[in-house]
Write a structure and sequence with these properties.
About 65% of the residues lie in helices and about 0% in strands. It has about 160 residues and is mostly helical.
Length: about 160
Amino acid sequence: MSAYADFQYARSALKLGLDDLIPKPIIRSELYDALLRACRSFGDMEKQPEKKTDPIIRKVEEYILVHYGEKCSLEDVADFVYMNPSYFSRFFKKETGKNFSEYLTDVRLDAAKRLLQEGNYNMNEIAEIAGFGSGKYFSKIFRERMGSSPTEYRRK
């Protein structure tokens, strides 16, 4: 994603292997399409045989990739796939091996780690972008799951 009007930045990114460029302001449908293409491309690159994933789970994973930075509750996602929240919770755990909140936290942490590596954002901005809400909560969860603080992770 870029807010730069200068095409030179885009040209440099293309030379580095850019797959897609989404100009700001971001149009949600363009971002969604780019994420789907990236996910499919990544899946094509894997050499090992792919486990058959239920189409509902694929739909949920795609939804989470687009909405992880927003309020994204189990009830919202269950509603998105037209399922009862209790049934969806059991179904999701059975199919993925993780409960919904663990999965969502993993996606949010992956996004936060990318943002930390970029170094362009402070902890509160990363917390907000990745969907954690507060910087304090983000730091707590990050330390619990990653074994170091976000600041220590960024330094490494």
